[in-house]
Amino acid sequence: MIHPTRTNLLLLKEKSRSVTNSIGILKARKQALIKEFLAATLPFLRSREDIRKTYGNGLRELALSLGHEGKDSIASIAAVTERDFGIEVIEKNIWGLRYKDIMFHDIPVRKPHQRGYDEFSSTPHLEEAITLFEKLLESMLNIAEFESKIKRLSYEILRTTRKIRVLEELVFPGLKQQIKIITQFIAERERESYFRLKKFKEIRARNAQ
Description:
The protein has 3 helices and 2 strands. The chain is mostly helical. The longest helix has about 80 residues, at about 125-209.
């Protein structure tokens, strides 16, 4: 129990105001994080759907090209088109929240003449399969970026929610209760002082008579 003095009462009131401000700031931060979370979730879900469609179409075109060109021919083309993609993981910041982002220095989807072989010697099915799988790579890199961001945002939203709950349900009510107790104690002490002073004046008046 804090000693019931006016100084401590003022300190408690100041602390109560500080807690109220902190709750307001945390709620604003939570809303901003939720907004970012929702903005990142929609492209993330779309990317997953695009990956399923692209993967299915790519497998179909690859199967057709295998029937026309054979496994050895496609394997040799795959060896020629191999490249170092150059992926870099960087750190970004949203409202003080740090998360990992992916940056790639090469363009995932290339034009046929950029792949390092004679595109006129292959079938349209193989060209379509390569294009689809390069698009699949691009989508997977994008989804990796969204997934990291969404995980960090969801964790921080839950963490901020817990902080708000502790302040609203434990800290702030405790301060209000302490302020109420000290206020009542000081008021009672002032009434007692007033009563003693009144009695003292009455006694002095009778003695003077």
